[in-house]
Amino acid sequence: MTNDNLRPRKDNLRPCVYMLRCCDDSLYTGWTNDFANRLKAHQSGKGGKYTRSRLPVSAVYLEYLPDKSAALKREAAIKKMSASAKRALITSSSNELDGTDL
Fold first, then answer.
1. Rounded mean pLDDT of the chain?
2. Is residue 4 assigned to a domain?
3. Could you give the number of structural domains in the chain?
4. CB of 62 within 8 A of CB of 97?
5. Fewer CB in a 10 Å sphere around the end CB: N or C, the chain?
6. Which segments of 16-93 does DSSP mark as H helices, in order?
7. Burial class (CB in 10 A: 0-12, 13-18, 19+), 15
């Protein structure tokens, strides 16, 4: 019998929340376990309905969380934020986005 909690996770398969800036300067917030693949899906028009009509999109915020539950809660909290609070979050130290994630 194996314990899934003891299996090492691939580095790119980590629960996270992210924000994308759309061509109309709006922000889209979502969560995923595979940021690189989800970003590619959004950029190709196969992501969410919202981003499909607002291409191109670019990643502006990324925050890794310990598990899916935490990611879903953080996503909900970010979605409730004002636009100015979201912009402040993008420039904050909690933004883990760097060139290797794109």
1. 88
2. no
3. 1
4. yes
5. N
6. 35-43, 49-52, 68-79, 83-90
7. buried
